[in-house]
Amino acid sequence: MMRPILLLAVLALPLPALASSFAGSSAGSASGASSAGSSSSDDDKIVLDARNDAAAFVASDGAIRGARLEAALLHLRERDAAQRGASDLALARAMLAR
C-alpha cells in the first residue's frame, strides 16, 4: 500500500525545477575532445529522459527497471569513473535528487 503512494508522490514532483538544477550541475563534465555529435546537453538529456524510470525504480526498490534508466546508468558509468562503483539504486536516487 505504501509503495504506490510513494511512487505517486515521487512522480508528482515538479520535474522542470529538479531538471534545471541537475543540468546546471553536470554541464561542465564533458571533455573538450568530444565528437561533434556529442555534447554535455546531449548527455544531460539522456539522464533527464530517464527520470521517470528512475522514480519508478526507486519507489519499487529496484523491481521496475525501464529501458531509459538502463541507458542512463550505462551512460553515467561510461562518462564518470567515480560512478562505476555506485549501485544502480544510488545512481537512480542521485538522478532524482538533482
What this model shows, in words?
The structure is a single chain. The chain has one domain. By secondary structure, the chain is an all-alpha fold. The protein is built from six helices and no strands.
User: Order of SSEs, N→C?
Assistant: HHHHHH
Number of helices: 6
How far is the N terminus from the C terminus? 27 Å
What percent of the residues sit in helical stretches (DSSP H or I)? Answer: 55-70%
Q: How would you sum up the major sheet? A: none
Radius of gyration: 14 Å
The overall pLDDT average reads 75
Tally of structural domains: 1
Which percent range describes the beta-strand content? under 5%
What is the strand tally? 0
**Uncertain residue ranges:** 15-38
Overall 3D shape: globular
Structural class category? mainly alpha
Quick summary:
The chain has 98 residues and is mainly alpha-helical.
Keywords:
98 residues, mainly alpha, 6 helices, 65% helix, globular
Task: Compile the SSE list and pairings.
Layout: H1 2-11, H2 15-26, H3 40-49, H4 51-59, H5 67-79, H6 88-97
Helix pairs in contact: 1-4, 2-3, 3-5, 4-6
